[in-house]
Amino acid sequence: MGLLSSLALIFLVGEVHASYLDFGIPPSNATVDVRVFNVVNATLINELHASIIEPVLPGRGAITFPFLAFLVEHKASQKRVMFDLGVRSDPLNFAPSISALFTDGIIQVESPGRDIIELLQVGGIALNSISAVIWSHAHFDHIGDMSKFPNTTGLVIGSETGTSTYPQFPNASLLESDFAGREVTKLNFAAANISFSGLKAIDYLGDGSFYLLNTPGHLPGHLSALARVTPTSFVSLGGDTFHHAGEARPRPDFQKMYPCPAHLLEETKASISTDYFWSPKSRDGAFDLHSRAQQFLAISDLPDSFTADAVQAQVSLDKLATFDSDGDFFVVVSHDISLRESIPYFPASLSNWKANNLKERVVWNFVDKANPAFLFSPM
């Protein structure tokens, strides 16, 4: 084979199978292990999820989300941190502005009530072995109950995270006990000198194994994480950068890298409503997924949206979605119901996702009409 032909082949292969190096991520042999807890599942009723994602099709007013938490352990030092905690087991003890969502039945938590503290202890993880808790942001379904952690466990938050607490501020959603007696670190992304896919990054453990990324928009101070689980593969912990896989997918680059399985592709022709979703090659009653370039769902910009700045949040989502379209990254957000039956939970590890071909097997779950994430036709 001639030199020019060889270079052309390398270029083409590289174009299809992009490397994490193309994102500017430095190489490193330092890794972490990521394990996932499904703290609880909760259902949002009365079309409350219209304040999260749009559109809401007729009969699809109620939606169930998992509340995920992540244990991250540094392989070399065995240092442990938590990324998000899910919801506390006694939600009526939240600040009144939050507890009302539960007393009014707008958010219904599946039984039995439990929290990450119980799950860690049952799993043999000592609370004093957790050096820090990292909140992706300060919404109630991510902060758990910090008062149950020992004071030796620090709290890490984004620089723009509000820290007003109830009862000093009657409308505040946080409690004094969330911060009392512990070291609280506000990340300074303004001083960050590295970025990946346009997202400012902080090398949290200092060896390239675990980065925190600035992903603003959903809430001031919102951040996500990038965990290197092998020297060349990563788990992207997206927090609430998006809530449903349909906000991030399909996108052209994603479809090129991860074609929809043939059986689901055939199913979507009839299952996805062409009254609400369209693509250039669709026909009335016959949806065409291949020609759909735009993601299915949008971040809600309603006045009562859970998202503080929908435009900024969309830009953060677009940047994070570049990882989703790459073979070296597995993106997991905190409420992806499409993964509920297929993701490995603690004590199993998520770190072997690439060797186990997990991403290829699950990323199109959300268009399977048997999956609880399916929202693309009227009920």
UniProtKB/TrEMBL annotation:
Record-linked InterPro entries: MBL_superfamily_lactonases, Metallo-B-lactamas, RibonucZ/Hydroxyglut_hydro
Keyword Repeat: no
Domain Metallo-beta-lactamase: 66-281
Tagged with keyword Zinc: yes
Signal peptide location: 1-18
GO terms, molecular function: hydrolase activity; metal ion binding
Transmembrane segments: none
Keywords, alphabetical: Hydrolase, Metal-binding, Signal, Zinc
Similarity remark: Belongs to the metallo-beta-lactamase superfamily.
Protein name: Beta-lactamase-like protein
Organism, scientific name: Mycena alexandri
Organism placement in taxonomy: Eukaryota, Fungi, Dikarya, Basidiomycota, Agaricomycotina
